[in-house]
Write a structure and sequence with these properties.
Length: 165
Amino acid sequence: MLKRLVAGGLGLGVAAWAGIAGVDSTTRDDAGQITVQGDLGAFVTQLGDCVNDMPEASSEVVGVSTVTGVPCDQPHHWQVIHKGEITLEEFSESGVLRETEILCESALEEIFDSFDEVDLDRMTRFKNAYENFLFPSAESWVEGDRTVDCMIGSDEETYTESFLG
């Protein structure tokens, strides 16, 4: 079974397992936004998806196959704010994590730079949020997985809106 990894601002690491990691039992509108919650495989998340049931932040790499995708106006802990690709030639967990952190930091900086005064009120509601990442494992790397999901949220807090506006 293939897996992907997750790491976050608190050193979280999560591996996503393929097979069921490709499932999407959410209902989406024409724009691709989740309108009815459901299981969402770690390999099929989309930009803007709001999710629950991520493993709690820790200093260890752990496995995940699915999360619960929810409409962003319903209580959730995490949101996919950027999707990118790793450009390393060879897999090493430390190298992939380092490139993931750089990619996600850059994406978050671009998002913050695009915010204006109207966005400040929303930003205050996310003031305790931190980063989290889904990234390839050694096993999924061999199968061609190079995708990184940059996420923002919190294990402790819930949100009922999109960080992206």
